[in-house]
Amino acid sequence: LFIDGITSKSEICGDSLEPNELKFWKRLEFNESEFLTQIHWSNRRLTGSLAFEWLPSTVTHVYLYNNSVTGSVNLRDLPDGMRMLVLSSNQLTGEIDLASLPSTFEQITVSQNKLCGTLDLDHLPDRLQKLYLYRNMFVGTISLTNLPQSMKILHLHENRLSGIIDVTRLPPMMQKLLLNHNQFEGMTDFSQLPESMEEFDVSHTNLEGTIRHLPKLVVRANGTQVQCV
Q1: Which residues have CB under 8 Å from 191's CB, separation 6+?
Q2: Whether pTM exceeds 0.85
Q3: E strands along the chain, which residues?
Q4: Could you tell me which SUPFAM superfamilies the record lists for this protein (predicted)?
Q5: Cα(133)–Cα(116) distance, integer angstroms
Q6: pLDDT by residue (tens digit) across 115-171?
Q7: CATH superfamily of 39-228
């Protein structure tokens, strides 16, 4: 049922009219009890849509990047124990409700699609470490003051986000924050960036302020009024 909307099923299950048994489908992983746990269908030239509400409850990892999958993604439909979802470089549309992610999530990647709407970053799962949302059509303002303490990587670049940003309360383990090519604006306090930060990109925004050097930090601020000292 999960792949009913896929028009190129032969890339996964053999003959679409008489599909193989699940254990013989391509690029699946099962646990010791023979329950399906991981799906690896990236770069499979898949077209059509997926019904995420029919994912088996035992699935923890789904990799489906670089296909031509269409339709929307209701994150509320994902299994409660899921930890990773990678859907980058597809043709997905519609809005996503990040607040409905299962509490077990560690990474979600939906970059390089056609997703839209606003982003709620205040109610992410506590365990989330990596969030990739770049190259979509997200709009509106964002909050960066209530990110999970475990967050390490947040990529928001090349969207249509706007407004002021507050980066004075980023997670203590934050390593990479990419905000470039958005419409953020205003004088910004960069004095509280965590020592763990390795990459910080605010280029091609309307932000202003001063960023002081940190030991591991690479800053990109071209096309802005931000100074690096």
Answers
A1: 168, 212
A2: yes
A3: 28-30, 36-40, 47-49, 61-63, 68-70, 84-86, 93-94, 107-109, 114-117, 130-132, 137-140, 153-155, 160-163, 176-178, 183-187, 199-201, 206-211, 218-220, 225-228
A4: L domain-like (SSF52058)
A5: 10
A6: 999 999 999 999 999 999 999 999 999 999 999 999 999 999 999 999 999 999 999
A7: Ribonuclease Inhibitor (3.80.10.10)
